[in-house]
Specification:
The chain is α+β, with helices and mostly antiparallel strands. It has two domains: 273 residues, Aminopeptidase (3-Layer(aba) Sandwich), CATH 3.40.630.10; 152 residues, Alpha-Beta Plaits, CATH 3.30.70. Helix content is 35%, strand content 24%. It contains 15 helices and 19 strands. The strands form five sheets. A six-stranded mixed sheet has the order 1-2-6-3-7-18. Strands 8, 9, 16 and 17 form a four-stranded mixed sheet that branches. β8 and β9 form a beta hairpin. α3 packs across α15. It starts with a helix and ends with a helix.
Amino acid sequence: METNPKLTAETTELLQAMIRNECVNFGTIESGEEVKNSDLLETFLEGTGLECEHYESAPGRRSVVARIEGSDPDASSMCLMGHTDVVPVSPSGWDRDPFGGELIDGEVWGRGAIDMLCQTAEMAVAFRHLADTGFKPKGDLIFFGVADEEAGGVYGAEWMIDNHPDALRCDYVLTEFGGTPTATPAGTALTLNVAEKGVAWQRLTVRGTPGHGSMPYEVDNALIKAAEVVRRLAEYRPTPQIHDLWKLQVANLPYDDDLKQMMLDSGRLDDALSRIPNRTKARHLHACTHTTFSPNIAMGGVKTNVIPDEVIIEVDIRTLPGETSNDVADHLRVALGDLHDSVEIEAIHDSPSTSSPTDNEMWDVLSGIMTAAHPGATIQPSLIVGGTDARFFRTAGAVAYGAGLFSPSVTYELFADRFHGHNERIDVESLALGTQLWIETSKQMLGG
């Protein structure tokens, strides 16, 4: 694939600036401050002569939308969506300033370099290039720089779909993340994400009887009961699901036939995962096939010498395709056993698993462009085990894919290690490929 050095330099500089804006999302309404990246993108795009609109769901939580209008109202429309917030960092684990945006040996360092400021910058540069060169699409092309993806989209994509649906109405949406090359027995496979697990976060409240810490004998200590609840959740092992996307994924895994046969048997899958030497890979494969339960927050107690009467546990539950809130309730009932009826359970986030079909023009266009950049590669439809803003658009009726294009050096394993990790960085070659992907996809999908 031929890339444009001038556009690559623009993408690199824009990514560096976005990293330096430090739009860290801690999950609170006051955090994020995506207005900084929204303003940066709006200024960058306004040079095209196109109007940008921004939307603020709460103070500082701003998203930006720009549009190249199509000539045919009946033609398919398309949205390039990239989020502008990043997750927190532990600076002590980094070799460089996580918000320095430094370019070192052909790589841009910083929080968000992989997730997903790289693609947001690529999309903005591609969009501006198309406008600058007089692109006249048949259908609308939309750029959407969105806030709050890293905390579930409440102040970003979800709020926009609920409050300003006309600003984003489209047939196709492209967002994070795909295009990472993986070596398989048959050659290179490139991921193109068509589905993602559901999110079913739950708040469990455990109650007990308060008392003096000096007399704990036979006291109903809520913390001790909560510890047992956490233990049971950690040890719960639901039956894995052997779904169609999993079968396609197993076919491309670099393991011997015996191990792959085990991975297609729900009764032997867990044993197969225990034999995989790369534990990062094993964790991902486990999440692709299991409903997962991760108790990540515990709050309780008021003083060292006071026996707590209430402890709150927040659990990150990720559901598989087809599972509902009733299934989540059944899982918790089994996992907690005789403690279930003594725990108050409240759903704090509930989004079912979503997926998009592959029998459409967008799939064919992306497959052609991606394999041109990696000759001989195959495209692997994949399931994201986390969550992205694509789910809101799928629910609204759009086809949404997690796409992208990365250099041969950014393997899936490397990508996964840097995603939310220390020393996050992206190579300039990947920025060049990604920018060209969005340009070519827009042209082939929308004409002009």
